[in-house]
Amino acid sequence: MKDKIIEILGKEIWISEDYDARKDKSQYFIEGIDNATDELLTLFNSEIAKRDQLIRLQDMSYCNLIDWFENGSVYDHNKERLAMDEQINKLKAEIE
Description:
The chain is mostly helical and about 100 residues long.
């Protein structure tokens, strides 16, 4: 991840031949970091999502649920649960 951060910042933080001597060099760095913020946030969010997934898998393995997760049963169960919730809400709406 460190390499990716350096790569992202390297694209934005540099001073070209067109360097404006009226600006302070630190201002160029600040602008470069500002320009790279969205890409850095995307990188951080994807890394956080990966870690969250690993933590969930680790927790499930402690509960002997890892096989249930890997074969898709968790997703199937969630889909079934959502479908049931929608059906219940429709029935409630009809009753009211």
